[in-house]
């Protein structure tokens, strides 16, 4: 039974993972830009990249009903990237 359950794939899990990756990236960018620590900024940049990769993976498996969710995540990541770039200058 565990094997069967491990093979179950739902879109909800993909969306939840994207949501967690985006939230983590936002938090890391916020912390890094407040501290202006170069190492924290690097980690935040990687978190944003990871979130974007996760978002792209979920988009590839999407059914088309999640477009609003993906658009919101895209906007959040774009804002985080902009905030990060401003802090790095």
TrEMBL record:
InterPro entries per UniProt? Uncharacterised_YpzA
What is a single Pfam family found in this protein's UniProt entry? DUF2564
Which portions of this protein are annotated as coiled-coil regions?
A: 41-68
Sorted keywords for this record are: Coiled coil
Which branch of life, at top level? Bacteria
Q: What's the protein name?
A: Cytosolic protein
């Amino acid at each position: 039974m565990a094997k069967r359950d491990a093979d179950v794939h739902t879109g909800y899990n993909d969306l939840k993972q994207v949501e967690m990756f985006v939230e983590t990236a936002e938090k890391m960018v916020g912390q890094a830009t407040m501290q202006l620590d170069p190492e924290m900024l690097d980690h935040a940049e990687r978190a944003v990249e990871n979130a974007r990769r996760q978002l792209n993976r979920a988009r590839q498996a999407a059914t088309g009903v999640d477009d609003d969710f993906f658009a919101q995540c895209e906007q959040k990541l774009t804002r985080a990237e902009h905030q990060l770039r401003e802090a790095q200058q």
